[in-house]
Specification:
This protein is of the alpha+beta class and 298 residues long. Strand 10 (225-226) and strand 11 form a beta hairpin. It has twelve helices and 13 strands. The structure holds zinc ion (3 copies). Residues 246-247, 268, 271, 274 line the site of one zinc ion (ZN).
Length: 298
């Protein structure tokens, strides 16, 4: 990916701001889809149709991704602003009202699919007067998340925030925090979808929202019980990515209250037919350490 930082750097210098360095991560994967979407790839209308969301999130064969327009009606100045208040928005969920309307209007082929953990969305600016696209200049724009996507997810209680600046603040996503929060949905090749071609798209679109509500209700505490040792009760507010929403009857679309519970990744792995779940050793060790602490305190 060739990204031109010169103009951004110049703009930052003019503003007297610190020079931001964007580390370019080495791509380790050999998965052709992953390599493609990390760079950003334009999609056709048919390809938009083929995007199968996982728990509502845009997802391509086990890889989460965002959609955005890389040649928006935005000037260089608009795109260089951090965050870009007047630039385009990026989308996170497939049922987003904006995305759906664009698709209906046959304009979904304007989108770029990207998996960018560094939060850069390469965009071409337009001349504000002539509206001509400057195809030679790519600006790594820091875009805001789409309002409708945030409403649907209700990330950090977005829908109940009435204040404009509070909302803008949430939409200016810290992608690392955001991805960590929803991590169980993004590691679906290991958890939600064990095999690439396995169709597990029957998670409801409000899956993430329901999990969030349950996390709050339980104060990020595991509701599992270990054989013989009573309740698990481990608290993981600082590691929400290790808390999954388990469906007791095995039907992932059944979110009735009696069918769902919050389980830590360690308890979740112990559920019937969950043996193959890939659990990081770090999580197991930390959860075990916290359980010992609870036992010692009682
Ligand atoms: Zn959206
Ligand atoms: Zn489960
Ligand atoms: Zn547990």
């Amino acid at each position: 990916m060739s990204v031109n930082f010169n103009k951004l750097d110049a703009a930052l210098k003019k503003m007297g701001g610190a020079l931001r360095k964007f580390p370019i991560k080495k791509i380790k994967s050999t998965d052709p889809i992953e390599i493609k979407i990390k760079k950003g790839v334009s999609i056709s209308r048919g390809e938009f149709d083929k995007i199968k969301p996982v728990a509502g999130f845009l997802n391509v064969e086990g890889h989460h991704a965002f959609l955005y327009i890389d040649q928006p009606f935005a000037s260089q100045e608009d795109l260089e602003e951090i965050p870009s208040e007047n630039g385009p928005r990026f989308h996170i969920v497939k049922e987003c009202k904006t995305l759906q309307k664009m698709h209906k209007d046959k304009r979904s082929d304007r989108y770029i699919l990207i998996q960018n953990i560094n939060g850069e969305f390469p965009c071409n600016p337009r001349d504000p007067l002539t509206r001509i696209i400057d195809t030679k200049t790519k600006i790594p724009a820091k875009l805001l998340a789409c309002h409708n996507c945030m409403m649907q997810l209700d990330y950090l209680g977005f829908s109940s925030k009435k204040n404009y600046s509070q909302r803008q603040q949430i939409r200016n996503l810290d992608l690392n925090k955001f991805l960590k929060h929803y991590n169980p949905f993004f590691i679906d090749s290991r958890y939600y979808r064990k095999f690439k071609d396995e169709d597990r798209g029957n998670y409801s679109v409000d899956h993430a929202k329901i999990r969030d509500r349950l996390l709050k209700q339980t104060d990020y505490t595991c509701q599992g019980s270990e054989l013989g040792t009573g309740k698990c009760d481990v608290q993981l507010k600082d590691h929400p990515e290790w808390l999954h929403m388990h469906h007791i009857n095995g039907r992932s679309g059944d979110n009735s209250p009696r069918n769902i519970k919050i389980l830590c990744i360690s308890c979740h792995q112990r559920q019937p037919l969950h043996e193959k779940m890939n659990v990081p050793a770090r999580a197991i060790n930390e959860i075990a350490r916290r359980r010992r602490k609870i036992t010692n305190e009682n």
